[in-house]
Amino acid sequence: MTGFDFDQLRTLAAVADAGSLTAAAPKLFLSQSAVSEQIRKLEDKAGRQLLVRTKRGITLTPAGEKLLEYARRLLALNDEAYRDLRGAPLRGELRLAITDYFRPGDVARLLRRLGQEHPGVRLHVAVMKSGQIEQAYESGEFDVAISMRIEARGRRGGRPTAAGLRLRREPLSWMAAEDWTHAAKGAPLPLVALPDTCALHQYTVGLLDRAKVPYTLAHIASGVAGMQLALAAGLGIACLNESALAPGIARVTPPRGLPPLPDATFHLLPPRAGETAFVAQAREALAAQFS
Predict the structure, then answer these.
(1) Are 248 and 237 in contact, with CB atoms under 8 Å apart?
(2) What is the model's pTM?
(3) How far apart are CA 165 and CA 148, in angstroms?
(4) Please, are residues 237 and 231 in contact by the beta-carbon 8 Å criterion?
(5) Which of 8, 118, 188, 246 could share a disulfide with 228, CB 3.0–4.6 Å?
């Protein structure tokens, strides 16, 4: 596909405004390494070096100056088109629940952009497990919710529910520290997971049990960020969705006798009866931002 990625163009503009990758990172709600990776991908796409990094920050190359000029015009036009087609910015309070597996490295930036485009929306965001999200959504505790499904021969971890709008599909992968090696042949697999109320935990241990792979729960984390830290520290191996891949963690290949994994899909849960016009419009805005 030709053309530039708008997220990468926004990163270039933020780095140019901030004067360094480090200073731009909190403004983009990204790590410094993620900002660096975005710039690297943009340079690969452009086929030119865009930035020169020095101890005092960054300097744009002539190609970088030229692309920055285009980037500002494209981003402004994109925002103008969105406002024109979507009408007046939304106003109101929105209770949003998101599964913590959903784009963990990007979700803060996505929420920030939503807030910039709709400053009149006051967001109340909860990050929870999918089963808890579905129960709370059914009882009316949240206006909009994003849940995860595991696509495996028509089955999924957790309770069945109407799918709603699919935002994203990602492969599940076995992940561990970049230098991780399993101790000895036949030794139990050290598994890192969330608590057993998590649908992915239930799916993973069920899969290992059916495949007769011996394992031990080496570490139980309270959230995906904790799992990423435990994996990077070399405490074991975990089943995670692709967007949870983080610095210090790598996919485990070859599979070393581990069973193959299906895909995970993320959905906006379907509207409830009597949903207000504001919530319906906010749902559309979220679908546009998060898909």
Answers:
(1) no
(2) 0.68
(3) 12
(4) yes
(5) 246
